[in-house]
Amino acid sequence: MHELIERYIAETVRFLRPQEREDVRIELASNILDMLGENPNDAMVERTLLELGAPSTLAAKYRGRERCLIGPNTFDFYLMVLKLVTVIVLTVTLVLTIITFFFEPVELSILNMVAKTIAALFSAASGVFLWVTITFTLLDYFQINMQKETWNLEALYNLDAASTKEITKREIYTDLIGLTLFMLFLVFVYTNSNLIAIHQRDFEPIPLFMAQPLRPFLIGWMGITLLNFAVSMVKMLKGRWTTAVFTLNTLTELIGIFYFIFIATRWRLYNPEFLTFFNTTMERHQSIVKAIAVALLILTLIGIGHEASITFRGESRKRFHENGEQE
Questions:
Q1: Which end of the chain has fewer surrounding CB within 10 Å, N or C?
Q2: How do residues 37-68 score in pLDDT, each as one tens digit?
Q3: Residue among 314, 323, 148 nearest 240 (CA)
Q4: pLDDT (tens digit, 9 = 90+) per residue, 127-157?
């Protein structure tokens, strides 16, 4: 099948529900091939795909039902804006809520922190849904069109070469949930060093880390976590792997892993009593930490390599096509 057809079909089914995509992919491929006939040339393929219209427009026809909460013509744009604004507002709310924990007049328990965080996030999400929906309802009522999609030959060739470049919603939501839990974990460790400790009945807890020296490093780690939140929002906005998204994501992953290694190898942060409890010398502990750090670095590089293969597979095909046109 012609590469442009594959790109067009992949982009079209991206706007559909996962359970609909395979059937539409097969039907659309069959229809396009029937329209082209035997031995079509590049010009025929280009003309046929341009006549079919933009992938988002064609996908709306394949859905078989109009999405009328806001209006069928703006519903997809509404969802994109709603998701983006929700992520931004929830991130800001999470940060502000966490900051307030440091200024509480009384020490909060972990359960109180979790409850306050969930309540703040729920309130923020409800507000976002209400105001974004009202805004789009008014825009739709007054027939204000904010979608300026241009469908021409340039847009056709700018379609991604493979559907595997898509960043799935499940992947993004998993990242955001994981980052939120990790941020809460960092706050809990900051406020209570006994969270990571040996607990024995009738004895004081033996923490793994020395609380005061560790706290400045935890603040730095919180900053890196917020940077990862920002990258996740960019990934949600773009929806697919591009060179810029890959570069940004790789930088944050490398910053995170090297910062972890940096903290893990600050030997003065470890509580000697913790090591004594396990009858472990500092030398042996250092060897274990270094082995873990190397393993995590290797796994991170493998993940980056996988993301690079997804990102640049389509880019290399696009450059090949452009070079062929110039020749």
A1: C
A2: 888 888 888 888 888 888 877 877 776 555 45
A3: 314
A4: 988 888 888 777 766 655 555 456 666 666 6
What token pair was written down for 198? Answer: 């040996």
The domain locations on the chain are 1-65, 68-147, 167-322
| Paired tokens of 265 | 């190898």
Mention every residue, 6+ apart, whose C-beta is less than 8 A from residue 161: 3, 6, 7, 313, 314, 315, 317, 318
Nearest to 11 by CA among 37, 48, 49: 49
Q: Exposed, middle or buried by CB within 10 Å (0-12, 13-18, 19+), for 46?
A: middle
Hey, what amino acid is at 103?
A: F
Name the residue with tokens 């939140």: 229
Cα(324)–Cα(327) distance, integer angstroms? 5
Taking the model in full, what pTM does it have?
A: 0.55
**Does an H or E element contain 29, and which?**
helix 18-36
Please provide residue 51's backbone torsions phi and psi, each rounded to the nearest 5 degrees: -70, -30
Determine the Cα angle at 303 with ends 300 and 305, to 5°. 110
**Max CA distance (Å), the chain:** 84
Look at the alpha carbons of 145, 148, 152, 157 in this order and tell me if their dihedral is positive or negative: negative
Query: Cα–Cα distances in Å, from 92 out to 23, 86, 123, 125, 130?
Result: 40, 10, 13, 11, 18
Give CA–CA dist 77/136, Å, rounded: 10
- Separation of alpha carbons 14 and 25, rounded Å: 10
d(CA 250, CA 300): 9
Count CB-CB contacts under 10 A for residue 326: 5
